[in-house]
Amino acid sequence: MLWATIGVVALGFFITLEIAARHYGLPGPMTNQVKEVIFAPKSGPLLYASMALMMVVLTWRERFIAAGVAIGIDIAFFLVRWAVDAKMMFGNGALWVILGYAVIAVTRRTGRERVLLLKAVGLGLLLVAGRKTGDTWLLITSKTRPAVLDQYVAVADHALGNPSWLAGRIVKATGTIGDHVLDYVYIQLAVAAVLVALYQLRNVAAERRFPSHHLVRTFLVIGLLGPGIYMIFPVVGPIFAYGADGGHWAVADLWPNTPTPIITPHDMPFDEITPRNCMPSLHTAWATAIFIHSRKGPRILRFGGAFWLIATLGATLGFGYHYGTDIIAGVVFTLTIEAALRAQERGWDRAGIQLVAYGATVFAAYLVSYRYLPMEMAEHPWVFGPLLILAMISVIYGYVRTTKLWEPKTAPARQPEPQPELV
Question: What pTM value is reported for the model?
Answer without folding.
Answer: 0.87
